Amino acid sequence: MRHTNLAVAASVSLALLVGAEPALRAQRPVGDKEIMAYLNQVVTWYRDVGAAIQAPTASRDVPIADALRRSTTEALRLAFDFARAQAAIPEAAPGAMVGPPDPRSRNLARAASVAQQRVADVQAELDEVARRRQSAPAADLPLLEAQRGELASELNFALARRDALRNLVGFFSAPGEEGLSARLTDLERTVPEAARPRKGAAAAAAGTAPEIRDFHPESAGIVSLTTRILSLSRAMGDLDRLVRETDALRQANQAIRTPMRKAVQDVTAQEDAVASAADTADADVLAVQKQALDDLTARFKQLTGASAPLGEQIAQIAASRAQLVEWRHALESDYRAALRYLLVRLGMLLAVIAVIFALSELWRRATLRYVQDMRRRRQVLLLRRVVVGCLVALFVVLSFVTEFGSLATVAGISAAGLAVALQSVLLSVVAYFFLVGRWGVRIGDRVTIGGVTGEVVDIGLFRLYLMELGGADLTRPTGRIVVFPNAVFFQPSAVFKQLPGVEYGWRTMTVTLGEAADYHAVEGRVLSAVERVYAEYQDAVERQHKTALSSMNVHAPVPRPESRVRPVEGGLQVTIRYPVEFSRAEETEDSVTRAVVEEIDRDPKLRRADGSAPKVETQAG
Q1: How many CB atoms lie within 10 A of CB 5?
Q2: Which one of 249, 444, 589, 613 is separated from 179 by 20 to 30 angstroms, measured CA to CA?
Q3: What fold does the segment set 441-497 form as a domain?
Q4: For the ranges 54-58, 109-113, 234-238, the one whose mean pLDDT is highest
């Protein structure tokens, strides 16, 4: 009966072992394609997050960015730890009965991992020597140079050894195609952060965070606020995309952990089945049970060693997501503050412009109502346009500009350049206000500028327009418009202008007498002839004279004809000066000349000794 029980126990144990053997010798719980796809997803997520945290927008975001960098880097390294642990599990064709892992493959994989770590260590030492060379004294440079050469040779050998072992691992892992370990190594080379650095190297790699100037929306201009809002909106969109990408990665982690948990549960169930089998005294059965338990233990350690990084990684992914959400909330707070200040700025600008235009309209209406002089009204309205334009430009600039110190510097340099380039234009603008002053030029005035005499037809902010006058007496329009820049007011050549309200000028008549002529009679008769003609428009001239005196604090005699006598070669010359209205200058000159000639013809005593008439000439001035 005892032998029967032993036989039954042995058969049960063998049956359990036969049932457990496919699980013990099963391939990796997760296929190589799934592992590489998951790793690529992790690497893409890590790079996307790294691109987002390169430039924090505020100093408050620096701790969040640092924590996010640490958590994402740790999640990346844990993903590679999981993949390396999976690569250590032997792969077999489906349905094949394979035994324990090939010691040669396992040793090669371990040697390849050690070689990869050796490459990283030598590279770190080489970087440290290069860093020390930059600040080392001249006496230490030969030793450092020798160390650098030795480390470079050592690095070359380590790279060659790593590549050779990686090729062998790929050959033994999957004949005819690249193995998982080789693909992991290739992928890890593209992401140097995936390798866990030594403590010293990690400390050396830690750098100082860049200095960040915080944005102050309360002192920013419209342009800066608009740029800030757009950049924050773009950054929030990037963080939302990263949150979705993190959620997808967490789901992928859960999906890849499911077969790992199932494999661990299967191994645990098999171990319980073997351990609960009836005890037996049969040495062969006990040996088989021991081998089965040892295999299950090794399998259990492999599976738990591979699944543990995934469990830790899910915690790092959750921490990264929380940091992304926190960062997103911080950016949203900045976005709302910037938007609020932008709306306030725009509202204030619109309100100020509305007030300026309202005051401008009141100014215009008051000018039209209370300023009756057209010239003065035109000047006041022009001044209104200048003031309103300057005020609007000033408030627009103040609303759009943030850095007033930089603005002052740029404005000073720009003003100096513009002053040189637009010197004539600026002088014309300044001269305009002199020209329209109390004793300035009005439309209709007769002026002489640069030898050109004409009537003013228009006065612009930059130019002065004259209707040229010609003829012997400069009273006839030539049909040409002469344009002068207002800056001519500051030129050395004089600007001659008729007195305000005075529309008359002077003409000079000369009568040349012989030595025997009676100059007293000639002077008296000629002067009386001129006075008779002048009496016809004397009232108009005296009225204009009074108007001119009323606008000046000076005294001037009433204009009237006057005579002078001076000796000339061969006789005497009588000069008669008399005022003439510009509007009837030619008519008056003709009348005066006729009257003088008639006087000379009526009295023979006025002729020269030889009987010829005196020489009569008339000219302006």
Answers
A1: 12
A2: 249
A3: SH3 type barrels. (2.30.30)
A4: 234-238
